[in-house]
Amino acid sequence: MTMSRTHKPLFVLKQHSSAISTCAIHDQGVFVNFMLSGDVDGIVKLWDLELRQVLLSFPAASIASQEFRTEEEVPSTPGLKNEGVLQVGFLSFADQSDSAEKELYLFFYTQCRNQQLYIWKVRLIDLYVSSEEAYSLCPSEARVDLVNTISIPQHGFCTVACICLSSTETQLAIPHDSNGIVSLWNVHTVCNASGACENLQVYCSHSFSSAGTMIKCGTIMMISYRDASFMVVAFESGHVSLVTTYGRQLGVIRTFAETTLSCLWSGNTLFASSAEGRLQCYSVLGDVEINDSHLVCDDCPSLACALLWETTLPKGLGCMAVQGNLIVVGSWDHTLRLFDFSGRVISIFTTHSGAVNQISMVPSKVSSYASFGYDVRRPRWCDAVTSRASGNCGGSGSIGGHVYLFASASGDYTVALWRVDFKALTASAN
C-alpha cells in the first residue's frame, strides 16, 4: 500500500474560507471544465478547472433573500441565518453546446440549510469577461440571476437528487418530512426565437411515498437515482427502499440496525453506509430492465437484495461515489478509500486534513481527455506504475475505460482533484 498512501492529487483548490460541504462537476460532460462548490458559510463558487480559477463567487441564500425582500419584512438576526450550502449541482441540458456562445447560459442549483433550493443562470460570455479580473484578485462581477425557488419541506439535511432526462429536461427529487414522501420536479428549457436556451420552466410532476405502508422508516436520509426510471431511498430507521420514479415500491430491506446515511444503486449493485461507519454491498435480484409500461402497473416485479460483502471504517462515512469498477468512499477520518467491486481496498488517499464531505466524478466518456486531468508541467505524465500497467499512457485509446477523474470536497476548506488509473492501482495492490 506504499503507493496508495503517497498518491497525490492533480491539484488542490483553496479559495474557500470555511468547511466545504459540497462540490459538483457537470455530469453530462457538456461543460467538462466547470465545477461548483459550496461551504457552510453559504458561499458558492464556480470554477474553471483548466484555469484553476474562480469564475464566480456569491452568497446564495443572501442574494436570493434580497430578490424577495420587501420593505415590510424584518431583517433576519445576524447569527441565526441558515445560509450554509448543503448541495450544489448543474442542471444538465445536452443541447446547450449548439447555442451561439454569446447566448449560452449555464444553469445550476444550490440547496441551502434554510430549506430552499435556488435555481440560477449565468451567461457564459460574462463569466469569461469577468474572469480576466480574477488574475488581479478582484472579485468577479458576472451577473448571476435567480430563475426559480423550490421549498424543501424537510427539516433534516437530506440533499436533493438530480438526473438528466433528455437534452431539454432535468428532474429533481425533493425529500419531505413525513411518510417518506418524495416529490419530483421537472425542469424544462425555454428557448428564444434563435433557438438558444435562455430560461426554464419548473413544475412538480408528482409525489409519492417511498416508504410504503407496512414499515415506519422515519426521516429520509438520502435519495439517489439509478437512472431515469429507478431510485433508492435511505432512511433513519436503517431501511433502504427501491422504487420507480412513478412511485412503485419494488423492494425494501433493513440494511443496518442504526441509521442508513447514504445509498447508491448502480446497475444490479446496491451500496449502503451507516452512521457507525459500516459499508455494505448487495446484489439486486430481479428484473430491473423492464419497460416504462410496467413501471406503473400493479404487477411490477419485486426485487430482492443479497449481501455480497461488508466492511467497517475507523470512523463514519461522509460520502461515496460509484463509477465503472471503482467505489470511492470519503470518511470522517479525513481519508479517501478506493474499493473494487469485490470489496477490496485498492488505495487510500490521505491528502485532506478534514472530513471528506462529498465526491463528484467526471463523466467516464470525457475522463480520459479532460484538459484539466493532467499535470500542466508534464501534460501526459504518469508515474512508473501507471506506465507499466497501461503501456502507452499518452494515448487516449490505451487509457480509456479505466481512468477516473473526481473531486473531493473537505472540511479543511479545500477541494482536491484526482486522476486515478484503476489498472495501475489494482496492480500495485496485488
From TrEMBL:
Q: Name one Pfam family in it.
A: WD40
Which PROSITE patterns is this protein grouped with? Answer: WD_REPEATS_1, WD_REPEATS_2
Asked if Signal is a keyword of the record, the answer is: no
UniProt cross-references to SMART domains, sorted A to Z = WD40
Alphabetical keyword list = Repeat, Ribonucleoprotein, Ribosomal protein, WD repeat
Q: Per the database entry, which stretches of residues form a coiled coil? A: none
Which domain of life does the protein's organism represent? Answer: Eukaryota
Q: Among the entry's GO cellular component annotations, what is one?
A: ribosome
Is Lipoprotein a UniProt keyword of this protein?
Answer: no
Instruction: Write out the ranges of the repeats annotated as WD.
Output: 13-57
**Transmembrane segments annotated in the record for this chain:** none
Which named protein is this? Uncharacterized protein TCIL3000_10_8730
Q: Which organism encodes this protein? A: Trypanosoma congolense (strain IL3000)
